[in-house]
Structure formats: structure tokens, C-alpha cells
């Protein structure tokens, strides 16, 4: 028996080590079921559309998510069933535990998809924000590669104590990128305010939605980093890390399905129908309706696919007649 194994065995507490991993796997399986529901809902909502970039991205994320769950289930099965009561085997790192680092691939795929959405939302404005976020994401991927190489050279769990710096850097970087992405999307939405109550209320809802979904993954990363710093000799932080991949997949799927969760505002439509029903023409209401419709069209950029057909607002002004404003919107079902 190696010296590292002898040092670890007296400190081994199954409740806070492999028990924490077992609980993490159970919660991860529940979150995987939730991602299955969201994936099914997404494809049901877009069953009439052809193959698109985001459909392929959802399929790819689902495959990675299922692979990650399979690896962590094998990891727990190996330690708690195959090597039941074999203490020496509990100190060694099994191959599936090393491969479950595929969670980093899931995280960075989701980050790249978010960066692409920032690029879409910033269309017609300065590209400085999406370019800056993209550069930060590229730098962050280097930290993930460092963690991958460090974990590859670990053979027993005692080696993880000497590589805590890689864990801190990876978790801190992912949390920082999450915050940057959320703030970037919120800033782009905030600068799109029109001054009308209906559109501003919709912007506020979207900002709260983005902050909640992005903040959840950031909080999970911070919890894993804090537990690793406070309790480095147990596996509670590893159990929390098992949840990261599932939270990222669910947050991105929730953003794709957000337009079906958020109820549309009908104040402007009701006022427009009221004036038409009574045959009263009010130019200011036409202008307000047109600006609200333009914002809804720009709001679609947050959820839009690259293969969607772009229909720009058109304004026709006829001489010797009241100003008439017509707006054509993208279909909400074409995401």
C-alpha cells in the first residue's frame, strides 16, 4: 500500500466523501430529467421548422449532458458497489472520474452560444461588447485546459490537495464569465428602453430572467470554490461540481424557451384595437404601437436563430393623408 493511501485512509469519512458524491449524482440525475423535459418542449415547439444551428446545438449539449451523467454514475458504482469495503480502491481515481471533466466542454459550449447571442443582440450597434466577451471566453478556455492537464496527472485523491489552485482558477473563471455575460445582455437590453411602460416592463422582465439564469450557475461555481477552500479534505465540492454541467444546460435551454414562458404584453394591442373599433384615428397611438412593435422585434434577437428570416420594419408615408405606420414582425415561432 502506498504512503499516500496510508495517509488518506485514517482521514476517510464516507459520509462527507463518497456520500457527498452519491448525493451529487442523485441531484444531477434530477436536473438531467429537467433538461430532457426542456429539450422535448423545445423540439415540440419547433417541429415544423427544418434543421437549424440551435437544434444541432441542443442535440450536442444533450449528448454531452448524458455522457457526463453516465460517467459520474459509473464513478459512484465503481467505488460503492464494485469496490464495496475495499478501502485501498477508494483512494485511487478511476478513469471515469477523470473523463467527467467533459463538464468543462459543456460549460464552454454554452458560453460560446451566449457570446453568439450577445453578438446578435448588438446588431446595429457597437461590436465592442461581444468582441470583449469573446476574448474573455477564449482566455477562460486556457484555464480549463490547465485544469484538464492537471487532473490527468492525478492518480489518487490525495493528489487533488496539491492541485487546488487549478480548481480555484477554473471555478473562479467560469463564475466571472457568467457574470460578464449576464451584465452584457442586461446592458444591451437596458439601452433598448423606449420610454413606454409596456416595453420597459418587458425589458425589466427579460433582464430579471437573464440575471436569474446566469446567477444560478455563478452561485453554484462560487459554492464549489468556497467548499473546496473550507473543506479541502472531503468531496463536498466535487458533489457540487457534478451539478454545474446540468445547470448550464438547463439555463441555456430555459433561454431558448423563454419567449414561451414570458407572457406577451397586450396593453398596446388593446389600445390599437380600441381606436380602430370606434373609428377614431389618433396618430400618437399609432406611433406608440409602432415603437412597441419595433422593440418586440429587437427583443426577438435575444432568442433568434441564424437561419431566421429577417423582416425589417417599414414605414410608408402618404401625402395628404394621416401618417400610417406599419410594422412587420418576425414570427415568434421561428426561433
Your description of this structure?
- It is a single chain.
- With 335 residues, the protein is an all-alpha fold.
- It has a two-stranded antiparallel sheet.
- It contains 13 helices and 2 strands; from the N terminus they run αααααααααααααββ.
- The longest helix is centred in the middle third of the chain and has 34 residues, at 197-230.
- Residues 1-10, 267-292 and 306-335 have low confidence and may be disordered.
- The protein is globular and about 65 Å long.
List keywords for this structure.
single chain, disordered N terminus, 335 residues, disordered C terminus, mainly alpha, two-stranded antiparallel ribbon
Topology at a glance:
Blueprint: H1 3-8, H2 18-45, H3 53-82, H4 87-90, H5 95-99, H6 103-121, H7 128-152, H8 164-190, H9 197-230, H10 236-256, H11 258-261, H12 267-277, H13 283-299, E1 314-316, E2 324-326
Antiparallel strand pairs: 1-2
Helix pairs in contact: 2-3, 2-10, 3-6, 3-10, 6-7, 6-8, 6-10, 7-8, 8-9, 9-10, 12-13
Count of alpha/pi helices: 13
For the sheet with most strands, the description reads: 2 strands, antiparallel
If you average the pLDDT, what whole number results?
Answer: 75
- Given as residue ranges, the uncertain stretches (5+ residues, pLDDT < 50) are 1-10, 267-292, 306-335
Order of helices and strands: HHHHHHHHHHHHHEE
Structural class: mainly alpha
Q: How many strand segments?
A: 2
Please give the alpha-carbon distance between the first and last residues: 58 Å
**Can you list the strand order of the major beta sheet?**
1-2
**What percentage of amino acids are in beta strands?**
under 5%
Helix content: 55-70%
Amino acid at each position: 500500500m502506498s504512503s499516500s493511501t496510508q495517509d488518506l485512509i485514517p482521514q476517510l469519512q464516507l459520509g462527507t466523501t463518497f456520500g457527498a458524491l452519491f448525493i451529487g449524482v442523485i441531484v444531477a440525475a434530477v436536473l438531467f430529467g429537467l433538461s430532457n423535459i426542456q429539450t422535448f418542449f423545445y423540439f415540440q415547439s419547433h417541429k415544423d421548422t427544418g434543421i437549424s444551428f440551435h437544434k444541432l446545438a441542443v442535440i450536442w449539449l444533450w449528448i454531452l449532458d448524458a455522457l457526463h451523467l453516465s460517467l459520474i454514475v459509473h464513478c459512484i458504482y465503481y467505488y460503492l458497489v464494485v469496490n464495496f469495503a475495499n478501502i485501498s480502491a477508494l483512494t485511487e481515481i478511476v478513469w471515469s472520474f477523470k473523463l467527467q471533466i467533459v463538464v468543462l466542454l459543456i460549460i464552454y459550449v454554452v458560453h460560446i452560444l451566449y457570446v453568439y447571442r450577445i453578438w446578435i443582440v448588438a446588431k446595429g450597434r457597437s461590436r465592442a461588447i461581444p468582441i470583449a466577451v469573446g476574448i474573455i471566453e477564449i482566455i477562460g478556455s486556457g484555464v480549463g485546459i490547465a485544469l484538464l492537464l492537471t487532473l490527468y496527472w492525478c492518480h489518487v485523491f490525495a493528489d487533488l490537495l496539491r492541485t487546488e489552485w487549478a480548481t480555484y482558477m477554473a471555478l473562479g473563471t467560469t463564475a466571472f464569465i457568467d457574470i460578464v455575460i449576464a451584465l452584457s445582455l442586461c446592458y444591451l437590453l437596458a439601452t433598448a428602453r423606449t420610454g413606454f411602460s409596456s416595453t420597459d416592463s418587458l425589458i425589466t422582465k427579460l433582464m430579471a430572467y437573464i440575471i436569474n439564469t446566469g446567477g444560478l450557475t455563478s452561485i453554484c461555481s462560487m459554492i464549489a470554490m468556497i467548499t473546496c477552500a473550507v473543506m479541502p479534505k472531503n468531496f463536498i465540492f466535487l458533489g457540487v461540481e457534478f451539478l454545474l454541467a446540468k445547470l448550464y444546460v438547463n439555463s441555456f435551454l430555459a433561454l431558448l424557451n423563454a419567449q414561451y414562458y414570458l407572457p406577451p404584453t397586450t396593453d398596446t394591442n388593446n389600445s390599437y384595437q380600441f381606436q380602430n373599433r370606434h373609428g377614431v384615428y389618433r396618430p400618437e397611438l399609432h406611433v406608440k404601437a409602432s415603437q412597441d412593435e419595433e422593440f418586440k422585434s429587437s427583443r426577438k434577437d435575444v432568442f433568434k436563430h441564424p437561419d431566421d428570416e429577417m423582416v425589417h420594419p417599414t414605414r410608408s408615408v402618404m401625402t395628404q393623408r394621416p401618417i400610417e405606420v406599419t410594422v412587420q414582425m418576425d414570427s415568434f415561432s421561428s426561433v
